[in-house]
Amino acid sequence: DLSGVIDLAGDRRFKLIKHDLEHSPWPFAERSFGGIVVTNYRYPPLYPHLISALTDNGTLIYDTFAVGNEQYGHPRNPAFLLEPGELLNAFAADLHIVAYDHGYIGTPKAAIRQRLCACKNTSRKAKRTGTI
Quick check: helix, strand or coil at residue 101? Predict the structure, then answer.
């Protein structure tokens, strides 16, 4: 859904792409990015693609709902909720974890969220550090 960014459609600095990431091939196999931001979305089969799509020294920011959010509202479907430590388990072996947090967030609305900021640095071994 591009409705939240449609005002960028006329800006030549941005290319808006609408693509079904769950039922179609990964559309960025030949491209790489200095930054990738994922919000409010969980689809574990994409995790390796996100790592591959980052340039060296590229940054991944991931922020979405986690198990426990059921008590605060939607999403409640377990398929849409990150398991404890899921982002660390998915990315720590390949990326340098700059910050990670899993827990209650009070604003803008109460929720259980998991957040990660990680950098791809192919010249040094990834490790877990810090919190958001």
Answer: strand
